[in-house]
Design a protein that fits this description.
The chain is globular, with a radius of gyration of 21 Å. By secondary structure, the protein is mainly alpha-helical. Strands 2-1-3 form a 3-stranded mixed beta sheet. α4 packs across α5, α5 packs antiparallel against α6 and α7 packs antiparallel against α8. It starts with a helix and ends with a helix. The protein has 11 helices and 3 strands.
Length: 208
């Protein structure tokens, strides 16, 4: 039975629904089978069988990348996990969107296992964005233990201001106040540069 379902993955045979996934040139049409999707996802079940079920055989999904959508479908059809550093965040987003909790857990575990001082700030930002408190706690613990390395990482200046505030309010950081001050100055300098770029881009498009 499993081999038969694997055969149906991304296959037009007996397909009764198609998803138009992505935007622009990356847009991709992906065939699927309502029975398989509904059996593994409460969101898909409501989409196809609920009181407000869609009657359309073609569904637009512009906010998801095709590779991530295929990763979620692959898991629903085969239980196979296909994630890597480039796709794990988009796959986590898609797994949460369609309430595929088992795959969501695999994504979070993957991020935890690949957490380092170099990416702790970026993963903390993503953990907050996707409401993953356990991942956020592990990121904060890593930042506490390797504060200097985390502050010196390239990704530090890419975090949002709210994440920065959360970290600065902690009294468990293993670094001097002088180094924190230097890191914040570096962050603010980059923040100002980004703001200026946006202002120039806006002026260029509106005044030309």
């Amino acid at each position: 039975m499993r081999e038969r379902i694997v055969f149906l993955f991304n296959n037009e045979i007996l397909s009764d629904v198609s998803f138009i996934v992505g935007r622009g040139a990356q847009k991709q049409r992906i065939p699927a089978h309502k029975l398989v999707l509904s059996s593994g996802s409460a969101v898909f079940d409501a989409m196809f069988n609920g009181t407000l079920a869609t009657a359309s055989s073609e569904i637009e999904v512009p906010d998801v990348e095709p590779a991530a959508f295929l990763a979620v479908l692959l898991f629903l059809y085969t239980d196979e996990i296909q994630i890597d550093p480039e796709t794990v965040m988009t796959t986590l987003y898609t797994a949460k969107k369609y309430a595929v909790s088992a795959l969501e857990k695999h994504c979070v575990d993957y991020l935890k296992n690949n957490l380092t001082s170099d990416n702790a700030f970026l993963l903390l930002t993503q953990a907050r964005l996707f409401d993953e408190p356990q991942l956020a706690a592990v990121c904060l613990d890593t930042i506490d233990r390797f504060t200097t390395k985390a502050l010196n990482a390239d990704g530090f200046t890419d975090i949002d201001i709210d994440t920065l505030k959360i970290v600065l309010e902690r009294d468990t950081l293993r670094v001097t106040e002088a180094k924190i001050f230097q890191a914040v100055l570096r962050y603010m300098n980059m923040y100002i540069i980004i703001c200026l770029i946006h202002i120039y881009a806006y002026l260029f498009t509106t005044l030309k």
